[in-house]
Design brief:
By secondary structure, the protein is mostly beta strands. It is built from no helices and five strands. Strand 4 and strand 5 form a beta hairpin.
Amino acid sequence: MISVQLWTCGNYHWYLKQSLEFSATADERMACFTWDTEAAYRLHIVLGNGQYQQYTWSWLTNHSSSGNVNDLASVAVIDGGKSA
């Protein structure tokens, strides 16, 4: 298996956001990849068999809200380095 790992750093901690797994066989091996020059969070990947894959991420914070400013809310964090 060949992996492409996407990490980010915040609050003095490194977070593994995503790990993309590719087969090590010649046909399914990742031949090349590049970040998009116009869309900052878009990754282009071409496999050995010519298959093209495109991944696009967004940087959003989702949280709960009751509508009352004084109420508590919940926020979830994705940390791919930890298993649930």
